[in-house]
Design brief:
748 residues; alpha+beta; Alpha-Beta Plaits; Rossmann fold; Jelly Rolls; 7-stranded parallel beta sheet; 36 strands; globular; binds calcium ion
């Protein structure tokens, strides 16, 4: 088959005008002759022969190594020379076009679909879900579990997508989370949330779930005593299988609670983000709370303000604030929900095999976000839990959401305490997800701000210069989460407001006044979290203001000054290093250091980590003392058993330092070393004395403290540990006893 190279050019040129063509550095050539003649032709044109295209023909695959691997232009000179060569019977520089997935999108035929105003295109804003469907993403291969009050598993609009492996009944301890029907208190919440995510499409029933081809499970865990253990087991249920956990519950939204996950739930979150999804991290989507009418603030809810949960706020169809919305700087994004009676609400499945168009509250918003994130995980299943948060920040937009507190942060993104980064745009999210490059491992920089006592009356301002761990391996140049951990007592906690201002002048309201919070319990190492400085460079001056907005007689009482420093995570973070690098603590190395061996881990994936040898070994192939390859000095290897003998030091053999050389060395050492040691000690004492007379301002991370009242009062803020992340530890302590957590569904 020989064709003219002229016609090829025409084709290429024509296609360029329609679609971008990428030219490679590989050529196909049709040549005839002996192998020597073929070699000669290749050499003449500077080509490298890669082989025959078909085993029994004269088509050759050749590479031109001097040409870029990808180029928008065909190589004119090489093609011209090949064309002029009579021995080249045919040739073509290989070019590629992008190949898009083909899918046909048709508007769902479900009877309630037209009422799903938040999904369909209209003149008003919408979540742009149809755009993601049109790109072929419907949640296939993604598993979502609703942690709630049970599920009507046989509901005809859910049954097809129901996944028993993503389900459990924690309340009755059996695998079936089937709803317990009750006339007085219908347990419909879980079933309603499930339909928002994964109601089946085109089945003539109800509406359509955002991710209508995702698998959906339910965990019945709110229908009984909610204990720490039940929460923890729910958050870690089948974590290899479940991708996204959607939770629309938390401490009661009474505007006076300060509660977070207790011991086991805290551990469950860390295990989830470390081990879930094969080490990529479980995705926890969380409702921000319905305490708006009680002036609640979601930074007082340790579940939603956890860095491990992706907190979702709500807006109405008009882009206004629903009455139940509560603000906080931990909210990341917003989805639609109901508002007052005149606003349309969310269409979903309901108990007794029915449908409803009456779902509302942040309860509706969290599963809507969970469904949209399921589309993103289908577009890119390799996203880590932090990747998902990065993408959500980028795929949320101000749209037409109305509130008084939109501000532009230090990297130019509008952000609000009610809406986070704005309305989540599904089309944009899947587009970004499909080309997203995984973020580097998490880093954590902790700064102890003040460790002595201050009394707080009207206003306390702390200003300090942060180097963001410059000079250490935890140096942070681009922020994700920031936590201000605070311990203080105060006569009326609800009168306090706390504001944090970044070096880029981004203002995070960490706490707003809560009139119903009358307690004097204060805060005990409570981590206030902000996402508003995402991607900002944290170095520079930060300002933290604690203000009393109530009675001027308010004041604190002294509590024991308890300095808690954030320490490195006790849990192994999975650091994935690309072959041939080895993960070692938080970095990737070319080889494991002495005392460490290479482990492939339990995972089926191929990344390799350095794990510590037994203390007896210098190098090893495993963690046992019978896995030694080399021994430390003064210890001998038993190569048959791969063990090291107990060390025998030369100075253990008393009286052996007898030869003249050793004795001379010892005398010289004493004569020269002695005076040096004395000189050093004297210098150190002089340095310490001079330093103790220096003013405090000479410290590197300088803290200025000003209060708005006179200085004669003693001060009473006990401790502020200020932590900035690309990574964080969690609220380390909840402030109330937790045997029976009054978790409430976020259904208005
Ligand atoms: Ca059951
Ligand atoms: Ca349906
Ligand atoms: Ca709340
Ligand atoms: Ca959160």
């Amino acid at each position: 088959m020989i064709c003219s190279s002229n016609s090829l050019y025409v084709l290429a040129k024509t296609s360029l005008t329609h679609q971008q063509v990428i030219y490679t550095n590989s050529w196909a050539l049709y040549l005839s002759g002996t192998p020597e003649q073929i070699n000669k032709i290749a050499k003449k044109h500077g080509f490298h022969i890669l082989g025959k295209i078909f085993p029994d023909g004269n088509y050759y695959h050749m590479e031109q190594r001097g040409v870029a691997k990808q180029s928008l232009q065909a190589h004119y000179l090489h093609n011209l020379r090949l064309k002029m060569d009579p021995k080249v019977l045919w040739f073509a520089q290989q070019s590629g076009r992008s190949r898009n997935r083909r899918h046909s999108f048709t508007v769902p035929t479900d009877p309630f679909f037209n009422q799903q105003w938040y999904l369909v295109h209209s003149e008003a804003f919408n979540q742009n879900v149809v755009a993601a469907w049109a790109r072929g993403y419907t949640g296939k291969g993604v598993v979502v579990s609703i942690l709630d009050d049970g599920l009507e598993t046989s509901h005809p609009d859910l049954a097809e997508n129901y996944d028993p492996l993503a389900s459990y009944d924690m309340n009755d301890n059996d695998p079936n989370p089937e709803t317990q029907y009750s006339l007085t208190r219908p347990r419909r919440h879980g079933t309603r949330c499930a339909g928002v995510v994964a109601a089946v499409a085109n089945n003539g029933m109800c509406g359509v779930g955002v991710a209508h081809q995702a698998k959906i499970g339910g965990v019945r865990m709110l229908d009984g005593q909610v204990t720490d253990l039940i929460e923890a087991m729910s958050l870690n249920l089948n974590q290899k299988h479940i991708d996204i956990y959607s939770a629309s519950w938390g401490p009661e939204d009474l505007g006076r609670n300060l509660e977070g996950p207790n011991t086991l739930a805290k551990e469950a979150f860390i295990r989830g983000i470390s081990n879930g999804r094969g080490g990529l991290g479980s995705i926890y989507v969380w409702a921000s709370g319905n305490g708006g009418a009680s002036f609640d603030n979601c930074n007082c809810d340790g579940y939603t303000n956890s860095i491990y949960t992706l907190s979702v706020g709500s807006t109405t169809e008009k882009g206004t604030l629903p009455f139940y919305s509560e603000p906080c700087s931990a909210i990341l994004t917003t989805t639609y929900s109901g508002g007052s009676f005149q606003h349309h609400r969310i269409v979903t499945t309901d108990l007794h095999q029915s449908c409803t168009s009456d779902h509302t509250g942040t309860s509706a918003s969290a599963p809507l976000a969970a469904g949209i994130i399921a589309l993103a995980l289908e577009a890119n299943p390799r996203l880590t839990w932090r990747d998902v948060q990065h993408l959500v920040v980028r795929a949320s937009r101000l749209a037409d959401l109305r509130t008084h507190d939109w501000r532009t942060n230090g990297v130019g993104r509008p952000v609000s305490h009610y809406y986070g980064y704005g309305l989540l745009d599904a089309g944009r999210l899947v587009d970004l997800a499909s080309k997203w490059k995984t973020v580097k491992p998490q880093k954590k920089c902790t700064i102890d701000l003040i460790t002595r006592s201050f009394e707080l009356r009207m206003k306390l301002t702390l200003r300090w210069n942060v180097t963001a761990c410059h000079g250490t391996r935890n140096w942070i140049r681009s922020l994700e989460h920031i936590q201000a951990r605070l311990t203080l007592t105060y006569s009326r906690r609800g009168d306090l407001s706390i504001t944090l201002i970044s070096p880029k002048k981004t203002i995070s309201n960490l706490l707003t006044t809560r009139p119903y919070d009358k307690t004097s319990a204060g805060f005990s190492d409570w981590a206030f979290m902000s996402t508003h400085c995402w991607d900002e460079d944290p170095s520079g001056y930060w300002v933290l203001q604690i203000e009393n907005n109530g009675d001027s007689n308010n004041r604190g009482t002294r509590i024991s000054a308890d300095i808690l420093k954030l320490t490195k995570n006790n849990y192994p973070l999975f650091i994935e290093c690309i072959y041939p690098l080895y993960g070692f603590e938080n970095s990737c190395l070319m080889s494991c250091p002495p005392h460490y061996y290479v482990s492939n881990g339990n995972s089926t994936r191929s990344y390799q980590r350095c794990l510590p040898c037994h203390r007896n070994c210098l190098t090893c192939f495993g963690k046992q003392d019978t896995n030694c390859l080399d021994c430390p000095p003064y210890s001998t290897l038993d190569s048959r058993r791969s063990t090291c003998s107990p060390p025998v030091y030369p100075w253990d053999h008393k009286g052996k330092v007898t030869n003249g050389m050793d004795r001379t060395a010892a005398v010289l050492g004493i004569l020269i070393g002695g005076p040096l040691v004395i000189l050093f000690v004297m210098w150190a004492i002089a340095w310490m004395v001079s330093r103790s007379f220096l003013p405090r301002g000479a410290a590197r991370n300088q803290v200025d403290i000003s209060t708005s009242h006179s200085n004669d009062e003693s001060r009473d803020v006990e401790m502020v540990v200020f932590s900035i992340t690309e990574s964080q530890a969690e609220n380390s302590e909840s402030t109330s006893t937790f045997t029976n957590i009054p978790n409430t569904s976020r259904e208005t």
